[in-house]
Write a structure and sequence with these properties.
- The structure is a homodimer of 113-residue chains.
- With 113 residues, chain A is an alpha+beta fold.
- Chain A has a single domain (11-110), classed as Arc Repressor Mutant, subunit A (Orthogonal Bundle).
- Chain A is built from five helices and three strands; from the N terminus they run H-H-E-H-H-E-E-H.
- Chain A has helices at 11-19, 22-31, 38-42, 49-62, 84-110, and strands at 36-37, 65-70, 73-78.
- Residues 1-6 of chain A have low confidence and may be disordered.
- At the A-B interface, helix 1, helix 2 and helix 5 of A face helix 1, helix 2 and helix 5 of B.
- Chain A binds a DNA duplex (30 and 30 nucleotides) through helix 4.
Amino acid sequence: MLEQSSSTPDPLDRIFAALADPARRGMVERLSRGPASATELAQGHTMTLSAVVQHLKVLEASGLVTSHKTGRVRTFTAEPEALGPAQRWIEDRKRAWHRDLDRLEELLRKSPP
Amino acid sequence: MLEQSSSTPDPLDRIFAALADPARRGMVERLSRGPASATELAQGHTMTLSAVVQHLKVLEASGLVTSHKTGRVRTFTAEPEALGPAQRWIEDRKRAWHRDLDRLEELLRKSPP
DNA sequence: CCAATGCTAAAGTGTTTGCTTGACTATTGG
DNA sequence: CCAATAGTCAAGCAAACACTTTAGCATTGG
């Protein structure tokens, strides 16, 4: 049960890190309503297309989006299944916390303060 | 519906960023099984207590943990409710994506390729 | 054919992050 | 009382991040 520094980076690192940026979350929100090209995704952002593409690379590296190129257009698609690990981690925390609360409650019932 | 750069940082930024670090996730995991002091939380980590406390500050700033000091020991407690926004954001994405799939499916039913 | 479009690749820059070290303060057990 | 314990504070540093600019290279519409 000891925490050990591992050389393999946990996929959760990449997923949560990808979601930590509001611009990237915006792109995922846009993509979860349907696929879009890089240029389309750049609409409504003040930053350059270059910056947008760099964000998209981060998202793709995390598995949250995929892309394929047809002609000169690269189309991005949301991969909501990739959110699974993050969702599960969060739910596990909540479960563990409630388990702890229940344990405490039972303890107080047996021997009140 | 335009994306606008706001000066107020979205709380989701801090939450997801806090969860992006494996050391911090480890601390939250530990804390969701019950409160612990800074020194206890430092057990099993190769880094210094100073570094651990800095991680705990990030967690506290995100709202994922709270702390109070009694004597010389500061005790940290998990705040699983703070995970709510993150959980909701993820669920919203999945919902939006399925909505889009359904729309597409219906379209194909009406006019096959 | 060729100019506009859509993207890619690389280099440079300022800011943020994740640490360490060292010095210091407050509590507490014996 | 006083040494060990628990934490705090600030400085410093290397690596990672979020961009920009510049220079390309295919694809495509007219």
